[in-house]
Design goal:
Layout: H1 2-15, E1 31-32, H2 34-46, H3 48-51, H4 66-70, H5 82-85, H6 92-105, E2 121-122, H7 125-134, H8 146-149, H9 156-159, H10 166-179, H11 184-188, H12 195-200
Parallel strand pairs: 1-2
Amino acid sequence: MRDLNGNFSQWFNVVHDRVGHLFQGRYRAFVIERETYFLEVARYIVLNAVRADLVVHPKDWKWSSYRATSGAGRVPEWLYVDWLLGNFSKQKRDAQQDYRTFVEEGIGGKNPYDEVTNGFLLGSPQFVNWIWEKTNGSEKLKEHPRDERIVGRLSLEEIFADVKTKQERNDAIILARIRCGYLNSEIARPDPTTATSAQRC
């Protein structure tokens, strides 16, 4: 998507003899835990036009997938709505009705992205830890920003929580620096809640 946006922007600027950004902000992708946040995010997205006061109801915004998903419009060949609707009911009409109700209940609701951790992870602490285990070694992918390649990293408080010996402290420092990508200045900064055991070493 990032490459598509970049290529389209370049093409658009050439065709229309202009320069600069076409889209506001850079493309961002999120890793979302299906069980707890997927539906919240799906609802939030189709309500964007309502929050921006462009329309009163999501069905009035033609650039959204809401009409197709809710049964109020034709489903384009490239749009797959069955998986989303399957989260509501096995019967398509019931699923569409439940989806419409679910979306309407979200008007004026909270922003699920307020709970994003690590800049792009949205899920429970267990999900974040699972991602951490699955991405071992991703800290070496230097083409991605540091906060995007260190997925679900432990906090410094967690790393230094049970440190009692000098060797444990050294191991914790290596984990914090090499695996978790913390800066030396971050590791060295004393924290009253975590530094006591490490400082004793």
